[in-house]
Amino acid sequence: MEYLAGWHVWVILALILAGLELLGAQFILLALGVSALGGAVAAALGADLNLQLLSAAATALVLVPVFVRKIHPRLLPNKRYGTLGSGAEAGQLAQVISGVSGKPAVRLSGNEFPLRWEGEVAPTIGETVRIIGIEGITVRVERIVPTA
After folding, report:
1. Which of 5, 99, 106, 114 is deepest in the core (most CB within 10 A)?
2. Nearest CA to 64 among 27, 38, 36?
3. Measuring CA to CA, which residue among 78, 123, 126, 77 is closest to residue 139?
């Protein structure tokens, strides 16, 4: 039976860490996975375990800040995002539609939601409103006041 070489173990560790990044670790695990490849290179060159660990650690000291501070922010979308009701929809514009019961509603993420307006005058069907937030299944909106 053939055993794994030292660099095999490092590559397996790198793949596991990169896979765990899918859980949403803000690029830290991906950086550590790439850093483990530093240990794999040292092992492939015949270095002892101490030098392999030192190589992986030195690589991590450089790559973790680079991945987290430089690369990760560049890959984020410019607009806020999140699940419905998490606050990410606040500030977005929506058009008032006639709901199933004939009452004013808005359509978000392909679904129709009843609305509650802030202010004294109710928005009319077809009017564009600004979303303030979501409470339960009700969308709180405000009318957009046209500037003269």
Report:
1. 106
2. 27
3. 123
What are the tokens at 113?
């939601």
For 84-110, write each residue's pLDDT tens digit.
666 667 788 888 888 877 888 888 877
pLDDT tens for residues 128-141? 898 888 888 888 99
Q: DSSP H helical segments within the chain, as ranges?
A: 6-20, 28-44, 49-65, 72-75
Distance CA 126, CA 45 (A): 69
Residue 117, burial from CB neighbour count under 10 angstroms (0-12, 13-18, 19+): middle
Check: CB of residue 114 under 8 Å from CB of residue 88: no
Global pTM exceeds 0.85:
no
CB 114 within 8 A of CB 99: yes
Sign of CA dihedral 127, 129, 135, 136: positive
